[in-house]
From TrEMBL:
Belongs to the class-I pyridoxal-phosphate-dependent aminotransferase family. Gene3D superfamilies: Aspartate Aminotransferase, domain 1 (3.90.1150.10), Type I PLP-dependent aspartate aminotransferase-like (Major domain) (3.40.640.10). Residues 43-394 form the Aminotransferase class I/classII large domain. The keyword Plastid does not apply. Its cofactor is pyridoxal 5'-phosphate. GO terms for biological process: alpha-amino acid metabolic process. InterPro entries: Aminotransferase_I/II_large (IPR004839), Class-I_PLP-dep_aminotransf (IPR050859), PyrdxlP-dep_Trfase (IPR015424), PyrdxlP-dep_Trfase_major (IPR015421), PyrdxlP-dep_Trfase_small (IPR015422). This is PLP-dependent aminotransferase family protein. It comes from the Bacteria. Homodimer. One of its GO terms (molecular function) is pyridoxal phosphate binding. Transmembrane segments: none annotated.
């Protein structure tokens, strides 16, 4: 008799891009495929000092079991961090610490989704979110985006049609889209939340990674401008992209009832996020090194992004279209087929590997109606020279 697994797994396939990742170990390959930050940019010295201080100053807190809601000094630091970005009056008890923002998404799925419930996400969106919500039985609907993020008129029609449990957005430098939701659309999203009483989940791991001008305030920060909107926003933050994904420190801000239910689910899941990681993150934020770290990562990723834009234009010309991102880690591009060149990014991905360069085809990032001409290129881990060389190889593959 084979093992009989839970039927909820029937809704989810292992990701198509996993297969591709297996090929990335090939020697000499230049990869634009991963979603990782560059390990060379981690502030190792700052984190070493922070972890040593965590052990020296509060070994009990850093090594003992802790509260499910999170380590108090970290909650205090995170609330201050959010306030520094315009979230009015945020108190430590209005957020919980999660094991990466991925866990916050899982907790939202667990607390909100019954099998068959509708959820609206952007098309395209973060693949792991689609999979996570489907695991809870969600019927995931996809709202179209353009260079300014989700198309709010279309979103309103879809909210009316589907009456979703919630709307999941990555408004700032989306993964994979790199798109930035405009200020006007952010306000409109909040108006929709209040009008239709629908929860907006704002996933924001990339908001601090901007290259020039700061992006508009987060949807959470803008709730102060739209009366009655605060209770309709859940906001997921993360230390992964600027500090370290290995720390697994994220956070969830939400209205009290939702936060209490998410906390209860977290208790049964991992009891609490690693206290050692939390104490280290708290010490790091307290150390005052964060502004310098942010400056560094913004400058370095910004440089790589502009080299990628320049190389794509030079090497691929009108065979590809894209809007250069103003932050985050990703270029989202579309093969145009100009000059009789390939239009299918799945085919190109295979040819690219033969030419020792890798990227991720865009189709799996769509919950509905995949666009096979799209692709995601990460500029995070290849330096400027490798980026130039990798895009030249991509042009050859095309
Ligand atoms: N949301 C988005 C949009 C992401 O791109 C990622 C990481 N790739 C996550 C959430 C999860 O990040 P973490 O759990 O490391 O905070």
């Amino acid at each position: 008799m084979p093992l009989s697994f839970a039927s909820r797994l029937d809704n989810v396939e292992t990701s198509a891009i996993r297969e591709l990742f297996k090929l990335l170990g090939k020697p000499g390959i230049i990869s634009f495929a991963g979603g990782f930050p560059d390990s060379a940019m981690f502030d190792v010295e700052g984190l070493r000092e922070a972890s040593q201080r965590a052990l020296a100053e509060e070994p009990g807190g850093a090594l003992q079991y802790g509260a499910t809601e999170g380590y108090e000094p970290l909650r205090t630091q995170l609330a201050a961090f959010e306030r520094s970005k315009g979230v009015a009056d945020l108190e430590p008890h209005q957020l919980i610490v999660t094991t990466g923002s991925q866990q916050a998404l899982d907790l939202l799925g667990k607390t909100m989704i019954d099998p068959g419930d509708k959820v609206i996400v952007e098309g395209p969106t973060f693949l792991a979110t689609i999979q996570c919500f489907r695991l809870y039985g969600a019927d995931v609907q996809s709202a179209p985006i353009d260079a300014h993020g989700v198309q709010v008129d279309r979103l309103e029609e879809m909210i009316k049609e589907h009456k979703p449990k919630f709307v999941y957005l990555i408004p700032t430098f989306g993964n994979p889209s790199g798109a930035l939701l405009s200020l006007e659309r952010r306000r409109k999203v909040l108006e929709l939340a209040v009008k239709y009483k629908v929860l907006i989940v704002e996933d924001d791991p990339y908001g601090d990674l901007y290259f020039g001008e700061a992006p508009p305030p987060s949807i959470l920060a803008l709730t102060k401008e739209v009366p009655g909107s605060r209770e309709w926003v859940a906001h997921c933050g993360s230390m992964s992209k600027v500090l370290s994904p290995g720390l697994r420190v994220g956070w969830l801000v939400a209205q009290p009832e939702l936060l209490a239910k998410a906390t209860m689910c977290k208790q049964f899941s991992d009891a609490h996020t690693s206290t050692f990681a939390q104490a280290t993150a708290a010490q790091y934020l307290k150390s005052g090194r964060m502004p310098e770290t942010l400056k560094n990562v913004r400058r370095k990723y910004g440089e790589r992004a502009s080299v990628m834009a320049e190389s794509l234009r030079k090497e691929l010309g009108d065979a590809i279209e894209f809007t250069a991102p103003q932050g985050g880690l990703f270029f989202w591009a579309r093969l145009t087929g100009a000059g009789g060149k390939l239009k299918d990014a799945n085919v190109l991905a295979k040819r690219a590997i033969e030419n020792n360069v890798a990227f991720v085809p865009g189709a799996p990032f769509f919950a509905k109606d995949p666009d096979v001409a799209t692709l995601r290129l990460s500029f995070a881990t290849a330096d400027v020279e490798k980026t130039r060389e990798g895009i030249a190889r991509l042009a050859k593959a095309l």
